[in-house]
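Throughout our pipeline, every protein is held as a single compact record rather than as scattered files. The record that follows is passed on verbatim for readers who wish to inspect the format:
___
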Amino acid sequence: MRLALLGAGISRSSMPRLQHHLGSLVGVEIDYGLIDGENYGEADPCALVRQSIEQGYHGLNVTHPYKQKVHNLVREPAIAGHDRIGSYNTLKFTDRGILGANTDYSGFIRGYRFRRGEQLPGHVVMCGAGGVGSAIAFGLLELGCEHLSIYDLQPSQADALASKLRQFGGSAEVLEQSRFPDVARSAHGLVNCTALGMHSYPGNAFPFSVIGSQQWAFDAVYTPLKTEFLMQCQQAGLQCLSGFDLWIFQGLDAFSVFTGVDIEADETLIETALSWLD
């Protein structure tokens, strides 16, 4: 089965290693490569998807900055309900056309339940309303989030996400900067869906002064595994979900979309995959 990751600046991605490893566990031969938009100048992700179909690929994982840009290529969702999110990070090529899934959405739900069981998210403050933020927001809605307060440097983006969540029965608001600290202090959970904290984007979406009274936290960043944000949350006694939790479970869900084979995340698989990351 020929697969690849489509994105920009993805040369260090561990997704090929994960998909090869999952294939080896169940006897599925995987040929997995990288399609890096940075090698194509002004890359058109839709053209790169069509090219991959012509070259005999069976499917693609899609990452930043193309998840929303490939949305209109999809004929139908591979998993019911994934079309409402507005972006796809998994494309499966079939005779019926391109099927799409957002395994950030389903992977976050699985990762949350893996770490927190049936505990409800409560009131959550989330920074970042882009592609991954939208997937996590809908994941929180599925998990029974009581209320979601969204902060983004582009208020129009946060407005659009909050409005969409309300259409599907969620309780959501957009936070102005002046209200952000007080609302964050009173929340049950803190969620970072910005790039802040990555090796190339140092920083923290949440001031240290607001961290400590909450119950749990999640950071979508997994390079590095321990961001400033998560280290501060751990020191304050919060239960933490890392970007690795999202990465491993969205990868498992993508493998299932591609192959039809479900693999459970046991401790051996978790420890093996962790050893690949720094």
